[in-house]
């Protein structure tokens, strides 16, 4: 049986997901799309092969032909769509962030728990990346003992002039915030941001690079360098120092070349290329799980934890202090 999907928000990633769901993945079909801009909705409907389109959230969510929703609108519009899907009892995959404030994320958590069903998955696709999964399998095997320190980098070649200091957390580190606690099966307890000298390639509203330090319940210290005007490439690294050895996440492979006296290997330039495969794995898994009525990926609780952690990091960007991350205990509902 095909899962019949409605896609809300038909911008850049909305169109990518429509193509992926309609023409690449198995066991699903896009039957409706929606966007506040009618022309955008119409174009996306054509992209999906001539499906119906709407310009409001209630119409697509309550369309009886729609079994499940994929939300790709901007972050500020996620809450309305996700709450509507929960109210309709339909599985919903929302692109990150779950919502733009921790309080709004908590409202979604509370609504999902009140519904008594697991319906929400958040689009933190790094959990589906091959490299992170290879590292996780090694850590989970126990062969390397307990993790002690993580050294990570998130480097982009450059960003636009509208990108400011808090965006280093909300738009960039947010992916590490989700994937790293999952990687080591731990919880964050505090966050601190250290500001080194700023690169000449930045501008007055952006401190760049930044060192973000996250401490976990078990005492692991995570050192994350965010450097969004590094110039040389899109460079994601993750090294886990353990009791019995060190695990280094592999980078996607490129041919090494010998030329003009140099032996060199290219560095990825684009985040789209670096994580392209993980979007396919993520959404195929979501489709398969939605048909079974389960959520295996990042939950609404994970979306809430990411929001609280991001708030602590942004606070520390100003105070420079170690800020507590206070999420409360994970509800039993999300331990099932
Ligand atoms: P985008 O190109 O701006 O597309 C968003 C679309 O949604 C636009 O067509 C927008 O219309 C429309 N929209 C706005 N409000 C809406 C509403 N209430 N209902 C339905 N549609 C609405 O943005 P994007 O780059 O695709 O990003 C969308 C989401 O995906 C964001 O949350 C972003 O963080 C996330 N994202 C995740 C990843 C990842 O790596 N996982 C990568 C990229 C993006 P208007 O243009 O008229 O406002």
Describe the 3D structure:
The structure is a single chain. This protein has helices at 12-23, 38-47, 57-61, 78-88, 102-115, 130-141, 167-183, 271-292, 300-319, and strands spanning 3-8, 28-34, 52-54, 68-71, 92-95, 120-123, 147-155, 188-194, 210-216, 221-227, 235-242, 246-248, 257-259, 262-264, 323-324. The chain is of the alpha/beta class. The strands form 3 sheets. Strands 12-11-7-10-9-8-15 form a 7-stranded mixed β-sheet, covered by helices on one side. Strands 3-2-1-4-5-6 form a 6-stranded parallel β-sheet, sandwiched between helices. Strand 4 (68-71), helix 4 and strand 5 (92-95) form a beta-alpha-beta unit. Helix 4 packs parallel to helix 5 (102-115), helix 5 (102-115) runs antiparallel to helix 9 (300-319) and helix 7 packs across helix 9 (300-319). The chain is globular and about 60 Å long. Bound molecules: NADP nicotinamide-adenine-dinucleotide phosphate (NAP). NADP nicotinamide-adenine-dinucleotide phosphate is lined by residues 8-14, 34-37, 40, 57, 72-75, 77, 95-96, 123, 125.
């Amino acid at each position: 049986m095909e899962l019949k999907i409605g896609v809300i928000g038909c911008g850049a990633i909305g169109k990518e997901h429509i193509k992926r769901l309609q023409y690449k993945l198995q066991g699903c079909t896009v039957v409706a799309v929606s966007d506040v801009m009618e022309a955008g909705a119409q174009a996306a409907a054509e992209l999906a092969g001539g499906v119906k389109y709407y310009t409001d959230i209630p119409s697509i969510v309550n369309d009886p032909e729609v079994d499940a929703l994929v939300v790709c609108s901007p972050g500020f519009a996620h809450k309305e769509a996700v709450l509507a899907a929960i109210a309709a009892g339909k599985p919903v995959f929302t692109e990150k962030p779950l919502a733009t404030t921790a309080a709004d994320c908590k409202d979604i958590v509370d609504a999902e728990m009140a519904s008594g069903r697991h319906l929400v998955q958040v689009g933190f696709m790094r959990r589906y990346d091959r490299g992170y999964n290879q590292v996780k399998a090694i850590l989970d095997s126990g062969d390397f003992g307990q993790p002690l320190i993580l050294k990570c980098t998130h480097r982009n070649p450059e960003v636009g002039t509208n990108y400011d200091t808090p965006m280093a957390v909300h738009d960039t580190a947010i992916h590490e915030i989700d994937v790293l606690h999952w990687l080591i099966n731990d919880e964050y307890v505090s966050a601190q941001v250290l500001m080194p000298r700023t690169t000449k390639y930045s501008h007055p509203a952006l401190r760049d690079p930044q060192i973000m330090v996250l401490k976990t319940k078990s005492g692991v210290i995570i050192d994350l360098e965010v450097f969004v005007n590094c110039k040389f490439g899109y460079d994601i690294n993750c090294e886990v120092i353990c009791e019995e050895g060190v695990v280094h996440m592999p980078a996607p492979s490129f041919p090494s070349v010998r030329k003009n006296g140099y032996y060199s290997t290219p560095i990825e330039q684009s985040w789209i290329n670096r994580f392209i495969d993980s979007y396919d794995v993520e959404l195929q898994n979501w489709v398969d799980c939605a048909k079974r009525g389960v959520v295996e990926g990042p939950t609404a609780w994970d979306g809430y934890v990411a929001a609280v952690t991001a708030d602590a990091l942004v606070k520390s960007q100003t105070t420079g202090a170690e800020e507590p991350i206070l999420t409360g205990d994970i509800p039993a509902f999300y331990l099932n």
